Structure formats: structure tokens, C-alpha cells
Amino acid sequence: MITDRDYEVIEFLKTFKVASTDTLTELFYKNPRTARHRLKQLTDKKMISRSRDAVSNQYVYFTRKPSQLRHSLLVTDFYRELNKYTSQVVFFARETEICGKRPDAVFGYRINKSEYVGLLEVEISHKGFDCDKYRNSKFVNYFPVPPKLFVISNQKRIKTDDLLCACSVCDTSLSNIKFSLS
To answer: Which of 4, 51, 103, 158 has its CA at 20 to 30 Å from residue 123's CA atom?
Structure first.
């Protein structure tokens, strides 16, 4: 029998494209054993698919395998961490176009009673982070509060000094995300 929670997982995977066992456990099941059992049932019924992630060696689940699997997985992992370290994620929209720019995600969140807007860029390719995308003041002034840019990258040096918004660079392990949110 497929539960309401299972359908929520399927909808989550349609929206976020891909998620690891750890992420789905934390967001939906809370118990790792239950998560593995439910996710295997959904896979056996062909409602979702899975493959092994070469980096973490755990299963990643999807309804349709994204072309940029690692990139999409980092966006989902960031969302998981955002849920863990904030009072509330108010909204989280992937690849929304704003003033001709398309960040990997635009999101709003609360920490205690303070509200924040964030932009997410995942840069793990060899072409480097595109700072020019965020230099436009019209883009930054689009939001009701000044947005904070979060860059997830496997590159050592990301130049963000001349951006008009606050910026936090996180490595792909997301180990410093907790301290970057407020």
C-alpha cells in the first residue's frame, strides 16, 4: 500500500529532481529503516528510480534522472540543510527567472523572527562562478529585503568582493552552511 507520505516523496522528487536516502529520511521518514523499506517499495513498484551516487555511495532517487545529477543533488542537499538550521523555510523555488537572471534556487526563510531571502548558485563545473550575474543592482533591488547569495563550489577561490549583495561560499560538503544563514 502506498501512503500519503510516499506520494509526498514522489512529488518532492518531481520538484527537486533527485534526493539521497539521507535527505529523504530526514525530511520525510525520520527513521532510516522505515525510509529504506518505503523507498525500496516505491522503487519495486516503479514509481521512482534509484542509482548509486559515486561520491557518497548511497542511493539517490528520482522520477527522471537529471542530466546534471551531482548539481541537482547539491541543490537538494542545500534545501535539507536549510530546513535543519532555520526556523522555517517559507518558500524554495528552483531555477526561477528574475530580471533575466536564473539562479539555481530562490528561497525565503526565517531564523527566530527575522526573515531572509536567499539565492543559490551551485558551481562545480570548470567554467567558474559567473559573478556578473549578480552585479546588477536592479536584480538585487527586486527583493523586499536584500538577498544573500549562497555559492556552493568545489573551487578554492571564488571572487565575490564586488557583488552588491552579501555572499557566502560553501564547499560541496555544506559543512559551513549553519554559520552562513543569518
So the answer is: 51
Q: What does pTM read for this prediction? A: 0.91
**161 in the same domain as 80:** yes
Determine the Cα–Cα distance for residues 142 and 127; give it in Å rounded to an integer. Answer: 27
Going through the chain in order, the beta strands assigned E by DSSP cover: 19-20, 49-52, 59-62, 88-94, 105-111, 114-123, 148-153, 166-170
How far apart CA 57 and CA 29 sit, in angstroms, is 20
Share of the chain above pLDDT 90, in %: 58
148 shares a domain with 62: no
Q: Which are the contacts of 125, defined by CB distance < 8 A and separation ≥ 6?
A: none
The verdict on 45 and 115 lying in the same domain is no
Q: What share of the chain is helix, strand, coil (3-state, %, to 5)?
A: 35, 25, 40
pLDDT in tens, 139-177: 777 888 888 989 888 877 766 666 667 778 888 888 888
